Amino acid sequence: MDQIIDIATDGRHLSRHRGFLKVSQDGKEIGRTPLDQIAAVIVHAHGTTWSTSLLCELAERGAPVVLCASNHAPKSVLMPIEGHHAQGARMRAQWYAKAPLMKQAWKQIVVAKVQMQAAALSAIGEAPAPLLMMLRKITSGDSTNIEAQAARHYWPRMMGSDFRRDTDGEDANALLNYGYTVMRAATARAVVAAGLNPTIGLFHSNRRNAFALADDLMEPFRPLVDSAVRTIAAAYGPAVDSEAKQSLARLIAIDLPLGDGFTPGSVALMKLATSLGQSFEAGKLNLALPTPPDPLTFSGLGQ
Asked: Using CB atoms within 10 A of its CB, is residue 143 exposed (0-12), middle (13-18) or buried (19+)?
């Protein structure tokens, strides 16, 4: 099973040892994890050091190393240079993709996100109808910005009427930052593994954002983080502690409806990125997007 390795204690040293990531403190080993099970390494702590051989082994497996600021938002991501065996051709197809295909892809992403938001609200007893009504108004490229309208309806009902989403905020905002960092790392891994250029987004296009495509593709998965954070903050408090991090890291392993079956979140991201790459090459859109899980699954997020 894919695991997120979180380094939050100062002075840790990370190294490779016989197929394992080894964590040491003051020269003594304190833990190890098989390299083949690592989806990403997230580092918050000061004074963390690592060996070059470890970074190369992680790159071989496509596992990103994410360096975070004090607010748990990512500041740097180390990714491999090589990804899919057909990476060159797929990136060219991505670069030359026609605008209508890109806009239709973003429309489908927004539809999937709003559907997930509606299901998340329904699971906590809030009426999903207003969001479901918005679905029919989503146009190619979401030119009328239904995504933002849905967010204005969604946030006060999901997190409370006084809540304001602020990446520099504390408490629930910091928990959201961490959860989104987990999801973004898993998405970036999927994008590179699919042979796509993470800088070339469908909608996000800030020239300083090296992972615009990852930010696009993770959008339908964000309500999973939101639901987990709501549960964690209500049941255990808003501190970004080890228990909260573990709960949020487990989100990439939850089973999501996809096609005729169920697929773990990290695999669903892989299938979505791969389907987008295939769509670029074929010139015809066929995205593998998950549908919302049942209310019981939503209720268990963050437990």
From this structure: exposed
Structure tokens at 209: 């954002």
pTM, whole model, 2 decimals?
Answer: 0.87
pLDDT digits (tens, 9 = 90+) for 88-140: 788 899 999 999 999 999 999 999 999 999 999 999 999 999 999 999 999 99
Domains of the chain in start order, with CATH, are 3-63 (3.100.10.20), 87-300 (1.20.120.920)
